[in-house]
Amino acid sequence: xxxxxxxxxxxxxxxxxxxxxxxxxxxxxxxxxxxxxxxxxxxxxxxxxxxxxxxxxxxxxxxxxxxxxxxxxxxxxxxxxxxxxxxxxxxxxxxxxxxxxxxxxxxxxxxxxxxxxxxxxxxxxxxxxxxxxxxxxxxxxxxxxxxxxxxxxxxxxxxxxxxxxxxxxxxxxxx
Amino acid sequence: xxxxxxxxxxxxxxxxxxxxxxxxxxxxxxxxxxxxxxxxxxxxxxxxxxxxxxxxxxxxxxxxxxxxxxxxxxxxxxxxxxxxxxxxxxxxxxxxxxxxxxxxxxxxxxxxxxxxxxxxxxxxxxxxxxxxxxxxxxxxxxxxxxxxxxxxxxxxxxxxxxxxxxxxxxxxxxxxxxxxxxxxxxxxxxxxxxxxxxxxxxxxxxxxxxx
Lengths: 175, 211
Hints:
Helix content of chain A: 25-40%
CATH architecture of the domain at 49-169 in chain B: 3-Layer(aba) Sandwich
Oligomer: heterodimer
Number of strands of chain B: 5
Strand content of chain A: 25-35%
Number of helices of chain B: 10
Largest sheet of chain B: 3 strands, parallel
Radius of gyration of chain B: 22 Å
Largest interface: A-B, 18 and 16 residues
Strand order of the largest sheet of chain A: 1-2-5-4-3
Shape of chain B: globular
Number of strands of chain A: 7
CATH superfamily of chain A: NADH:ubiquinone oxidoreductase Nqo5 subunit
């Protein structure tokens, strides 16, 4: 048992004190704590975590659970200024409906989330409400319309055995 | 001299054999087929200046190729920053759909005669990204003269490509053909610029963005 893991458990306890009723589930392993909160309490828990000392978002990512018809969005947050918290990464996750993916934006709380929310928007088609500037970042409009990181997007090599309708891909202009 | 004055010239005792522009054009064609054409090819072969356009990871090998150990500068080739003073594009690896527009704009800005080298497996046929949704083959964007296979190619391979391009220039007299015909035939098969840069419709208003 390392000293680091004992500290992690103490951070997990203090997170429970900070977030209280917002938590659906909380897990920890290898220097990482994952907190699952409901979507309507995401902004509230983000504000509480910022007051607690987490001052930036390291990455924003989404997981496509196509069988359950869900998206799980995870904000990996950490700290620069608080020395003790800077050793750990906290995952603040929420689960949303796959058919109508809407989510409140956290870019007003953590500015570093802005670009990464745009990236999630163009690769998964997840819309962040009240985001200040929700435009395409890396992809061209036609490619972004295909939502290439969703599980139901099939690349050419895998499409040998599956029948894929490339009409939308071929009908439009090539970019 | 305007055309109306030419008719009056004979009356004053001067004889005009032909229009000055057509005579100059014919003289240029005649000279470019002979020794001057060869000299143009020779001069271009020993001043292949690649533009600083790093599309992908093969750019590291380019750095080594012009470094002190492999020293491609001894072939008269010098990497330069601005497209306006260069005559060679080395496409290093993958070209994404957005970068393709930049490659084409750089190519259009360069003065002719100009040449292109495609470097690495990605620029031959996609490499590991062969089935990606977001890449373009460089030969769809600009006409390529020399291909370098490898992932990534060694700096020696880049030197070899420069030498091969020099041979190609002097044997097939590409540079002097650019001047006499002012076009390249293989420009026809590539994607038109409106399609390459068609995604750039939206203008960014930076003043309203952060208010």
